[in-house]
Structures are given as C-alpha cells and as structure tokens.
Amino acid sequence: MRPMKIVPIPRHTLARSVAEQLLNLITAGALKPGARMPSERALMDQLQVARSTVREALQILAASRIIEIRPGVGAFVRTHPRTRLPAARTARQAQRAGRSTAPHHASIAPVAPVAVAKPAPDEPIRVPDLKRDRLATFEFISWWERARVQAARVMVVGAGALGNEALKNLALMGIGNLCIVDFDTIEAANLSRSVLFRAEDGGEKKSLVAARRAKELNPDVRVQYFHGDVNTQIGLGVFRRMDVIIGCLDNREARLAINRFAYRMNKPWVDGAIQELFGLVRVFVPGQGACYECTLTEQARREIALRYSCPLLARQNILLGKVPTTPTISSIIAGLQTQDALKLLHGLPVQPGHVTHINGLTNDFHTTAYTPDENCASHWVYDEVRELADCQAATTTGADLLQIARAELGDAAVIELDQEIVTHLDCPHCGTTTQVFQPISQVTHTDGQCPGCGELRQVKMAHLITGAEPFMDRSLSTLGVPPLHILRARNADEYRFYELTGDLAATLHWSHFEDAARVHVHPRPAITLGQVVETPVEKPRPRIVVH
Known about the structure:
Blueprint: H1 14-28, H2 40-47, H3 51-63, E1 67-70, E2 74-77, H4 85-97, H5 146-151, E3 153-157, H6 161-173, E4 177-182, H7 206-217, E5 222-227, H8 236-240, E6 244-248, H9 252-264, E7 269-275, E8 278-284, H10 292-295, H11 298-307, H12 327-346, E9 354-359, E10 364-369, E11 385-387, H13 398-409, E12 414-426, E13 433-439, E14 458-465, E15 486-490, E16 495-499, H14 504-507
Parallel strand pairs: 3-4, 3-6, 4-5, 6-7, 11-16
Antiparallel strand pairs: 1-2, 7-8, 8-9, 9-10, 12-13, 12-14, 12-15, 15-16
Helix pairs in contact: 1-3, 6-7, 6-12
C-alpha cells in the first residue's frame, strides 16, 4: 500500500493578516516610498490588535525588505520597494494556498532576528547615552519624540497636591517649557500631599516654589510662574502660546474660566479632580465632544449663580473649604493627566469629551461620554488675532484701542470687556455717590459699604467701551485688563480680536531661575570591598543622679 502524503496545513496568523493589509496599502500607493509608517499606537487603534501583533507584522515586512525599521525612530517604506512588491505579493498568495513559488529571499517568512539596514544619511540612528543623557531611556519609547517634547509649552494651573505631581512628571519627562499659575501660599497642611514643598517654604508663593523645584528636578526645563488669579490676571495671549493646559483645581469658577479661555484660543486642556480616595480625569478639545461647561448640571449652574448674585461678593464668596484627599490619589490622577498631555503633544488618540472615574476604594476605573450642549456659551473659537506690537496694558488707554478698532470696523465699533467696571457706588440712604472706575474683581464687599451709614451701596457698572465712558483716558490695566490680553471689538456685523503684543517680552519669558546654580552632589568616599570601615563611637554621657 502506497504511503499517504500528508501536507502541513498553512497557518494564517493574525500578524500575517496585518502584514498583508499593510502590504496592500504600500502596493496601492497609500504609503509612498520613503514615507514613515503609522505609529504602533495608531496601527493598534485602527486595526484593533495588540502591540505584539503589530510589531510581528512589521518584522515580517522588514524581513521581506519592504520596510525598514529604525530603532528609536520608526518604520519607513523603503525608497525603492516596487521591485520587491510583486514577489512579496506572489509569496503571500502562495502561502495562503499552502505552496511556495517565490524565491526564498522574497517570501514573507516567519519572524526571525533581522539585521536592520543602515538608515538614510540624513536620518541617522540615535544611540542614547545612558550615562550622560537624562532623557536617554525615553529614546526607546516608540512614540516619544525628543524635539517635540523639548519644544512643548505646557501650562499647569494650580500648584497644590495635583499640581505638584503633574509638574514633577512633566519635568522628569523633559517638557521644555513649564508655565505655573497659582494665587495661594504654602501652609503646613500642604506638606503631607505636595512633593515639591518643604517645611521651610511656609508662607511662600506656591507657584514660585513649584517652579524652583521643577527646575531643580530638571535644570534643562525652562520655567515661569504667575502668582495670580487665573480668572482675571492671566492674559489670553498666554493661553494662545500654550500647547496644552493642565487644570489641577478645586473649584468650578477656575475650571469654567480655563475652559472658556482654552476654547477661545482653540487649545486642549486636561482636567483632574480628587477627593479622599476618588478622582476623575477628562480631556477637553474644542470642537470635539463636550466641553467643561457642557458637563455642568442645573444644580451646579444655580450654585454658581447664587454665589455671584451680589457682585461685591464675587471674590470673597469663593469656597474656602479644603478638599480632603491623599497623596496616593493625587499621584494616580496627576499621572493620568500628564499621560494625556503627552499624548496630545504627540498627536496620539485621546477621548475628548469623556470622563474617567477612578474609585480608589475598589480600584475600579470606568469611562463615560458627556453629551455636548449645542447652545453652550463656551463654544466660541476666536478668529484671526491681530497683534498690536506697540500696545501694552499699562500704557494703552481705552480711547487708544477704540480708535484702532473704529479704523477697521467703523464709528459704530465698541470694545467688550471681560469683566465689569464698577463706575460708581451710590448710597440710597445718604444720597452720596463715590466714583470708583475699577474692575469688579478689585472691589470688595467692604468697599461697597457706605462709610457714613454703613449700608450696602448700589453698584453701577459698565462692560463696554463706547467712547462716552468717563474712564476713557485710563490705561487698560487699571480697568482690569491683564498684560498680553486679547480684547474683542465689534460692530453690528462682525468681531475683531486685538492682542496687546507689546507685553509679550515681559509677560512670557520662560526665564525664571535660569541663573540659579545647578545642584552639585558632593562625592562620597569610595569604599573598597574587604576594607574595614571604622564607625566613630560616641562617648557615653555622664550619668545624672536626681536627689
């Protein structure tokens, strides 16, 4: 009896399917010769496969000399792969039919150690110096790009527990420019949750100390701090020059302000919140899903409205209670915030308009999507901004800016202010009137009380510059306009946007602590194996006898 010939059944693995799809893209010309292949993360998301499968597929194509893998850089379609595509295609079809017709060197063979071809002269392989380069190990991360990270500008608003952890992470990752905003000072209770603060820092500005310690962690990082209220004292031009904003806040007022500023400047921001063992992280990108204001419930809106029902209580009515939390949940939430910020910087996929809840009690994570509000007041991206190189908040008056606007928009143009100007305080009991001409953020509840009778006076305000106001000759800074701000002008038909660019050099310089001496570690004495090290013995103290 003739023996039966058994032919092995060909195995069509998932990695080979991925390799075939990529080969189809190259054959069709979707991936041009010399082009960089999509990142591993992008292929994972598009093909819905694991990283190991993507890497195996890329190795299959590299073994067929269709692509070139450059460690630390990426995978590239070979400059002249066309001559190899027919052989690779024939080999692939033969393998699926269970036979081999192509030459061995052109077939898509099983994964094996592959000698990577030398890269093009203009794109050399970077060999990290692990002894001298603090960022060297990041070169092994497939998606991490040194130049992009070192050029990045990231603003962190809030330098408390969350802000400390986020700044630590950003400095260690090598973010090139860090802008830190906070209006608070350090107290003893901060030391249990804030890795950048020390006992001797009590009473100092949080933003200043956080900037100094971030610079100590990584002297190559450029830092700048703002000690002020993000609601009213940071110009929109600062937001305009950021790549990502990270919110580490504990109140709705500041979150709402950041949300509106980021949306107007078309910038993404990452919000984080913590309480006890619970926290949440969410990414907001203008035009992609819900924004922060979309997430506010009717109850939250009522609370904000009630808190600001009296204009003079606006600044004094801020919630002063401290949120109880732990340093552990701060680390978790800030780590996720930093990770999302890095993904935004590298163009990696995020989930804008979603919230990830973290339950530290049960270690549960779950993500849900918010519903966008089509009528949300925050959904306004400013059009082209005109830079006024000769205008500064401290020297430009309302009349000056109005003249510039009317030269473009006509005599009907007006300037809209972001906060109301208190013009007068009228006492109905005494019949007296006091001129004020200050932004509402600088007028307190005490100022509103009549010095004669003690009654709360009526407030008269203005929020436009029309040319008829009695404060036209006052500088914009006295009207509450921060340096490098962007103001709105309009007529009946359109808006124009003007930036006080004359403030740029002094406002956004990234040079705090540049002259600070680097930390020098004193070398410890060398210890040789086998050497006996004598430990000094303290002399016994004399005994004290109490009679």
